[in-house]
Amino acid sequence: MITTFRVDPPEDRLTAAITTVRELFSGPDFLAEMELWAAARTDPRLRETLVPVVERIGARLREQLAELFGAELAAHPDYPKVSMLTVEVARGLAFSAPIRRGHGDSALLEYWCEAAATMLGRPAPAGHHTDREHDQVVV
Predict the structure, then answer these.
(1) What pLDDT, on the 0 to 100 scale, is given for residue 27?
(2) DSSP for the chain?
(3) pLDDT at residue 11 tops 70
(4) What are the extents of the domains in the chain?
(5) Would the pLDDT of 8 be above 90?
(6) Helices 79-100 and 44-74: angle between axes, nearest 10 degrees
(7) What is the mean pLDDT of residues 103-108?
(8) pTM confidence score
(9) Contact present, 22 and 109 (Cβ < 8 Å)
(10) How far apart are CA 92 and CA 37, in angstroms?
């Protein structure tokens, strides 16, 4: 995906990056990771083993996020907040998806794209609903 962003940068880089992160956090590998995190909560040996692995993966993820968002967005002083919150929003959506069955994902992602755009001093992404026709998100 990163190569695609380099070769053919999306017109709305912010929304494309956020959507891509959500996709990355939606597969079976991610759900297996969440199961390990949950197990590590009560298993000190697993937690001791898992923490350094998660830290290494996190460092690589931060590099990849900077590439996805692109140099211009990554240079903004609030980019670290946006990238961190993007990951947490994606994790939360992925973690709750089996129970919510995906209800509200698109609306929640849209809200996050709007908030991220505001944080980065950008106009709201094109095509996003401003009338809040879908404010009733299943939570």
Answers:
(1) 82
(2) -HHHHHHS--SSHHHHHHHHHHHHTSSHHHHHHHHHHHHHTT-HHHHHHHHHHHHHHHHHHHHHHHHHHHHHHHTSTTHHHHHHHHHHHHHHHHHHHHHHTTTTHHHHHHHHHHHHHHHTT-PPPTT--SS-TT-----
(3) yes
(4) 2-119
(5) no
(6) 120
(7) 81
(8) 0.84
(9) yes
(10) 13
